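Appendix C: a fully annotated inverse folding record. The material below is reproduced so that readers can follow the format used throughout the book. The structure is listed first as tokens, followed by the designed sequence.
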């Protein structure tokens, strides 16, 4: 499984793992892969704490940080607008829809006076706060989603010897990223959890590999076992980028009710929905996604308005998912990809990496000698 990215980063296996959970990031890097912490859910101050923890627990192994700096979002073309102006773009009909949905599922209100930060990382400014913090830690990779990172951010990363990667869902997006100076392209197929396009991994990866050659490409979307890694390398990728599979590992902080839902789900139980962020993101099908797709729905709002509209609701759903007398747990979902159908037991991160490697070795041997089938 040795590829040039193993040499670039000094890693044993070119298996990259995206997770919001620092324990998973450290565990994957220590097992020979490459953990990448998703910064979106953190304030810059919280991110500082998470990265200091990783530095203390990763045994000097390389890791990275993923930020979200969308190239385009509501108001971005006017040079960014104030939070108040953005709030004013959300209609009463939308606010009522959310209120009624929560009431129907008996989701308690937050304690009086508690405020939810509803803009977080979904903007250029939010992403920059994360970059600033991340570059003061010994990270080896900075990753951006939803468009090319600004040139000055790429330059700052390069000046510190940090490689830059970016997620894409089409060849055109990949070419833009390469033109912007990105070092590694993550070609993410529609199977993936989270924001995702319409083209399947099987079709996207070889197209992107050919278009950006010799820039290295990581295959993403629907990768959770050694056979899928072997297929990715056969398609021309230099490694794999995984996300969903880490949601149900021992080190993950996913809520128990969510882990149970994922272990029960099949590959047909996800949907691409705009109901979390305003851009299509694959996630578990729940009464929440169904309501937004239903007849009564006012329709979703563009990024970042949909997240602003629903941030408090999502906090309440998470917080009260296990509260007796509330049906919040039914509404609880998560971005997750079609690979969820293969997530059947809770394993340690190390176990996941080692079983991927073992299966990869088996399949490569089998391909070399079909008589061993
Ligand atoms: C819960 C979850 C949250 C995600 N959030 C982000 C994110 O904030 N930034 C990002 O670049 N990718 C995000 N992704 C996408 C992953 O980086 C990755 O591309 C994707 O999970 C790969 O496909 P897979 O889910 O089939 O493994 C997320 C994925 C999941 C499952």
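Designed amino acids, in order:
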């Amino acid at each position: 499984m040795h590829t040039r990215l193993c040499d670039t980063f000094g890693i044993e296996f070119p298996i990259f793992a995206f997770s919001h959970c620092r324990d998973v990031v450290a565990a994957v890097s220590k097992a020979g892969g490459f953990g990448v912490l998703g910064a979106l859910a953190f304030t810059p101050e919280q991110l500082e704490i998470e990265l200091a923890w990783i530095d203390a627990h990763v045994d000097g192994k390389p890791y990275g940080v993923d930020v979200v700096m969308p190239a385009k979002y509501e108001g971005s073309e006017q040079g960014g607008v104030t939070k108040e102006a953005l709030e004013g773009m959300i209609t009463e009909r939308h606010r009522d829809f959310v209120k009624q949905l929560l009431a129907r599922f008996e989701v308690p209100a937050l304690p009086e006076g508690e405020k939810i930060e509803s803009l977080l990382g979904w903007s250029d400014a939010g992403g920059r706060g994360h970059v600033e913090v991340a570059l003061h830690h010994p990270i080896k990779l900075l990753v951006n989603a939803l468009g090319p990172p600004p040139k000055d951010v790429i330059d700052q990363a390069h000046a510190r010897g940090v490689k830059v990667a970016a997620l894409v869902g089409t060849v055109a997006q990949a070419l833009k990223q390469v033109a912007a100076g990105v070092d590694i392209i993550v070609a993410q197929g529609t199977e993936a959890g989270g924001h995702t396009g319409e083209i399947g991994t099987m079709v996207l990866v070889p197209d992107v590999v050919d278009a950006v050659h010799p820039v290295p490409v990581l295959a993403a979307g629907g990768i959770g076992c050694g056979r899928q890694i072997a297929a990715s390398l056969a398609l021309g990728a230099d490694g794999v980028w995984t996300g969903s599979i880490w949601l149900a590992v021992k080190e993950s902080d996913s809520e128990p009710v969510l882990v149970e839902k994922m272990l029960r789900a099949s590959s047909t139980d996800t949907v691409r929905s705009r109901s979390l962020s305003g851009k299509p993101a694959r996630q578990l099908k729940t009464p929440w996604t169904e309501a937004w797709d239903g007849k009564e729905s006012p329709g979703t709002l563009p990024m970042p308005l949909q997240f602003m509209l629903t941030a408090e609701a999502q906090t309440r759903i998470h917080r009260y998912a296990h509260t007796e007398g509330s049906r919040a747990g039914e509404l609880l979902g998560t971005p997750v990809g079609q690979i969820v159908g293969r997530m059947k037991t809770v394993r340690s991160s190390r176990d996941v990496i080692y079983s991927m490697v073992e299966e990869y070795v088996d399949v490569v041997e089998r391909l070399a000698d079909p008589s061993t089938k």
